[in-house]
Amino acid sequence: MKKEELSRRDFIKKVMTLSAAAALPSCLIGKNIDDSLNALKAISPNEKINLACCGIGNRGGSIINDLYNTGMVNIVALCDTEIGAAHTLGILNRFPKVPRFQDFRKMFDKMSNQIDAVCIGVPDHTHFPITMLAMSLGKHVYVEKPLARTFIECELMMQAAKKYGVVTQMGNQGHSEANYFQFKAWKEAGIIKDVTAITAHMNSARRWHGWDVNMKDFPRAETVPATLDWDCWQGARPQRSYNHDFINGQWRCWYEYGMGALGDWGAHIIDTAHEFLELGLPYEVNPVKLSGHNSFFFPMSSTICFRFPKRKNMPALDITWYDGIDNQPELPEGYGVSEYNADIPLVGNQKLQASKLNPGKIIYSKEFTFKGGSHGSTLSIIGDKEKNIKYPEVPASPSNHFENFIRACKGEEKTRSPFEVSGPLSQVFCLGVLAQRLNVPLKFDRELKIITNNKLANELLTGEPPRKGWEEFYKL
């Protein structure tokens, strides 16, 4: 650990003393907390939601289109640090008269009283400040997965959501599709019970599979594009020189900004098991295999074991995560073929398709072995034991994930992936990334929420202090 990082412990100690009442200070938003909460007005079922959009290209643009296509929103503000770049033009052309911003802080300063809700489809490292400011102003928030980049950011976001009473939804859209309702019904019917192990796998090629694992430093400085506010894009992270391999999805590659394959796909594969098996946080995380481990970007392949204790009448359970094109898990007898899965969404302009195995999961219980995919893919039972099962009726989803969020803003439904559900799930991924980054087993105290066997890892639950000018988002 660098000398300057060692001097940052005052920040770490301060943030780790957060209490259940933690939230943003009034000095951040220029008004007192009561005024902020008063901004959370009741919305008539007949009214449209006034939606501000942070992140309008790539995945952010898709989120905007899906929310707008519900027919229940007005797009009132567009914000992107690269506004005007090629990948933002689709949304800019669809909503040519909507006010545009490069800095979300300026957007809220100018338009806060015109905004009911905010969708946030930006790099992982900037989910936190935008979401916290929005919630403190009484705005409902739809945040792309994973919830945040660090364990403590997830914790603060959960606490702020409770304090400000806003509607929250994380964008793991499978939580509003067939897999969610099937898993819930099968669990309640006793078909899914006594689960002792889950294999989760995502073995498609990732951006970093062609990179040099012997990299000694971040990539060289390049000229910042005229359309990019590089300072704002970096958010609370340390100041660095611009390089094209940091932006437009490449941020997923770096520990500095993203969460790798685990953070990108874990919420689409593990989400229903995590919720309905009431897993919470693991007590141990072991990096079983990390091929091409280095200090800057994610390993070429990873096998990570998450260990969860007994819960109520449910046995202890291990989830073993596999990523990397050369790191596919052993399949149970009778698994069958990994046929093309139409539930896997577009990535860029192409379907993501593994050469041998689709992203998905294998769930092992004392009686059955279940085969499942990602997102909304439903489960099937491997073998011939399923012939004698009396299956319960599985209800159809009353709304997709985007409509569910908007209807919740209008008081008509409850969100299916609120921060109280998606926050602990995201924290599981944060712990997994720490094990990847440090290449050490971690022992975690679920009650105290601390890592007990590695001092550096425990400090990284909070991470480095924010860059100057971004401290207020983290103050208690």
UniProtKB/TrEMBL annotation:
Gene3D superfamilies assigned to the protein according to its UniProt record, in alphabetical order: NAD(P)-binding Rossmann-like Domain (3.40.50.720)
Residue ranges constituting the Gfo/Idh/MocA-like oxidoreductase N-terminal domain according to the UniProt record: 49-171
One Pfam family this sequence matches: GFO_IDH_MocA_C2
Residue ranges annotated for the Gfo/Idh/MocA-like oxidoreductase bacterial type C-terminal domain, each copy included: 218-277
Database matches in InterPro entries: Gfo/Idh/MocA-like_OxRdtase_N, Gfo/Idh/MocA_oxidrdct_glycsds, Gfo/Idh/MocA_OxRdtase_bact_C, NAD(P)-bd_dom_sf, TAT_signal
Origin: domain of life: Bacteria
GO molecular function (one): nucleotide binding
Record's protein name: Tat pathway signal sequence domain protein
Species in which this protein is naturally found: Bacteroides ovatus (strain ATCC 8483 / DSM 1896 / JCM 5824 / BCRC 10623 / CCUG 4943 / NCTC 11153)
